[in-house]
Every structure is written in structure tokens, then in C-alpha cells.
Amino acid sequence: MTHREQKLLKIQTSLFQNDGVSSQLADEFARQWQAQNPQGQVITRDLGAEPVPHLDLARFQSFITPEEESTAEQKAVVNYSDQLIAEITSADVLVLGIPMYNFSVPSTLRAYFDHVARAGVTFRYTPEGPQGLIKGKRAVVFITRGGFHGEDHSQTAYVRQFLGFLGITDVEVVHAEGLSVSQDAKENSVKTAREKIAELV
Questions:
Q1: N or C: which end of the chain has fewer CB within 10 A?
Q2: Paired residues of 44 in beta bridges
Q3: Phi/psi zone of residue 51: left (φ > 0), alpha (ψ -120 to 50 degrees), beta?
């Protein structure tokens, strides 16, 4: 039996793309992970550079229309979603860089989530409640904020809940807060987050 190479999927969501602090923290984790897994593969999906279209009625109907009844346009929508899902299912580790925008996650991440949460594909409904179908993954989430909101903020809870909904329950969240409060606060927070990366890798 051949040993399968490990794969890491890095998802960054900052409007500033690679210049965003959340992107830089996620990238630092990926670099250290790559050093530990020299044969491993790192895949980057930058939602700031290539945003996923927001879900509308036409796209939603594409997901629920039987394949034999789908138009070419609907099949293209489903194929795009399938590609996003395949990136997740083929990865062993997911790393997300998520800034706080207006007390929540970037809208591009919400759009991405809308395309990977598909009944019968990544989760299913059961009499006992929804069941995630993506198992055996580890997720590391870097959340950056201009102010101080704490680890119990609804933004963090939402990300944990969504990942758990897909079946990803091994989730570590690292917060870097106060980035807009002062230069000292920013430097101290980022330094602490970077120190945490070494522990997590």
C-alpha cells in the first residue's frame, strides 16, 4: 500500500488578499506545515482575488434539479460547486484566514460556504438532525479583528458551527485582536498568534 501525500487547503478571505494579516497568518502556518511535510501539497484559494458568486435562485435551483433535467448552465454551476467541494474532501488540513468585517465573516466566505453546503453531498438530514459527511479533517482558523471582541463572539461560533455542520469537528481557532487599536496592540497580538502557529504545526 502506497503512502498518500498529505494535502493542505489554505483559504484566505481578506479584501487585502496576501497583504491581510489573516492571510499572512494562514500563510505562515502553511509554510511551517510544508517544512514539516516536504512531500505535502499546499493549495490556496483566495476568495479576495477570485470571489465565489453569491447564491441566487438560479444557482440554488441548479443544486436541486436532477442531473437528467439540468440545462448546460445548471450543470456548469454544479460542476463549479463540485470543484470547491473536491478541494476540501481531498485535503487533510484546512487553514482559513478570516478577518472580521462588520461583526461577521467576509461576504465572500459566506458565498463560498453556500456553495459547499449541499444536502446529500457534504451533509444529510436524518431523523436525529443534520449529519456532516466530510470526516477526518483538521481545521485551523485564524480570525483577525480591529477591536477586542473575545473568543465567544458570534463570528467564531458561526465558523465552528458551519465546519461542524459539514462534519469537521477538529477545529482550532487562533484570534489576533486589537489590530486597529494601536501599533503595540497589533504587534503583540500578531506575535502571540505566530507563537501559537509553531505549537499547532
A1: N
A2: 10
A3: beta
Q: What contacts 24+ positions apart, CB below 8 Å, involve 52-58? A: 52/84, 52/108, 52/111, 52/112, 52/114, 52/115, 53/111, 54/107, 54/110, 54/111, 54/114, 55/111, 55/114, 55/115
In this prediction the pTM is 0.94
Per residue in 85-116, pLDDT tens?
999 999 999 999 999 999 999 999 999 999 99
What nine digits make up the cell of 48?
479576495
Residue 146's closest CA among 175, 169, 179? 179
> How far from chain centre, in Å, is Cα 23?
12
Per-residue confidence (pLDDT) for residue 5, from 0 to 100: 85
Beta bridge partners of 99: 144
Average pLDDT (27-54) is 97
